[in-house]
Amino acid sequence: MAWLGTWAKRVKITIDQTDIDAALSDFPFLVYISTSSGRNGDDVSFVFDELQNDANRKKIAVTLGEDTECYVEIEKWDDANEEAWLWVKVPSVSSGADTELYLYYDSDHADNDTYVANTNSVVAQSVWDSDFKLVCHMRDDPDTSHVRDSTSNNNDGTKLAAGQPAVTTSGQIADAQDFDGDDDVINCGRDASLNNINAAITIEALVKPHTGYTPDDVSGICNKWNGRLQIWINPPTGVATLRLRIGAADKDVSFGVVPENDWSYLAGTYITGSQIAYLDGSLVNETAPTGDIDDHSASNLEIGRYSGGRNHDGLIDEFRVSNTNRNAAWIKATKESLWDDLLAFGSEEILVLAEASGSGIGTSIATGILVKLGLAAGSGIGIALAEGEVWFCKSTRVEPSHLEVARLKASRLEPVRLKSSRLPLCQETRRS
Asked: How many angstroms separate the Cα of 150 from the Cα of each of 126, 193, 196, 284, 287?
């Protein structure tokens, strides 16, 4: 069994192949850690039990397989409420078999600064491939007047004013921005990384219109006027539309109806001959305009506005722009990831630190150290409870949630936390 370095603990994460329609490369997955995570509502709060506080949030590693490290962006870490949202770049994801990852964690380990970082750092930016030109998690950062771009392009957004829009913790993924339908807007500028998107594009937005929203005439999600790059919702019908300007003509494709007071994932893509609207990961409509998107270098990219004061009335969470047309498999996997419906978590596993042979009695091993035993009754794993005493575990993989151990006879033990040695100590609950 391979293991990454000397990390004390880990948990397996499995990506469900049934939601991966084609192989994906460098895909950014959401890893949500809480008391109810993944498609099965798994309790992985033992990660917080080990790390103990927000300051230890970088004492983690995520691997493809057991020991190939992946880049991790920490969107938010909240030890007090036992919730964390991580974005992990997975180099390859199979559509023919489940893909296995591991999350390692250890409160005594050094910060993993090479692979794990907060938003707006070089390491965190490595999560997003070079085709991403803007990725905004819609958190206030560094203050109530701004939001960050998670890519290396630094297309950070400036709000109309402090708290306009206002941040809310009621996002689909951690925080979101709450637009008032009047004048709230976020301006992301017109950097060359945004201006040079002409041959292909993907625009993604996670939106939740307010109940009974009443903007002037449309509820604008985004806009870059000269090339349009617009998504808006029509209040009377609730129908959302993607508009691009191609060959001096507006080209529209409909997403269909976006419900009020509920989250919807909109993704619009274009490459010459194919303009597609996806709603919640499913292709809804496709048209076939040809040619490049008109030059839009003179226009700022705005989030929360269509044009001319027609602003969004509702919440926006994730917002992304890429200079490629993401394929259907990518869009579907993104939707499943945004809803935390792709991953399943295993049980906590603990590193074996030492080996011993013989019966284990009389071995000189420090209290609390996990050891492999070669016993006459068969090999397994044990815990040194005190010098000279080794308790036998029936499994070769220690998972504290269901340890069955014995002192050469059947005795039931209960794992408890041992901070000094980083490993759970087993206490006898019934002597034989």
From this structure: 9, 14, 19, 29, 31
Distance (Å, whole) CA 271 – CA 325: 6
pLDDT 10s digits, 324-358: 999 999 999 999 999 999 999 999 998 765 443 33
Whether the Cβ atoms of residue 206 and residue 319 lie closer than 8 Å to each other: yes
Q: Residue type at 423?
A: L
Cα(153)–Cα(191) distance, rounded to whole angstroms?
8
Paired tokens of 121:
């750092």
Same domain assignment for residues 107 and 153: no
* CATH code for the domain in which residue 319 is found: 2.60.120.200
Query: What's the domain count of the chain?
Result: 3
CB-count exposure of residue 24 (10 Å: 0-12, 13-18, 19+)? buried
Instruction: Indicate if 233 and 264 belong to the same structural domain.
Output: yes
281: domain range? 132-323
Does some domain include residue 304? Answer: yes
Query: What average pLDDT does range 118-142 have in this prediction?
Result: 98
Q: Is the pTM value of this prediction over 0.70?
A: yes
Which letter does DSSP use for residue 19 in this model? G
Structure tokens at 144: 């109530």
pLDDT band at 214 (very low <50, low <70, confident <90, very high): low
Same domain (yes/no): 51, 84: yes
User: Does 143 share its domain with 106?
Assistant: no
Do 3 and 79 reside in the same domain of the chain?
Answer: yes
Six token digits for residue 82? 């036992």
Measure the CA–CA gap between 395 and 383, rounded to whole angstroms.
Answer: 12
Beta bridge partner(s), residue 390: 384
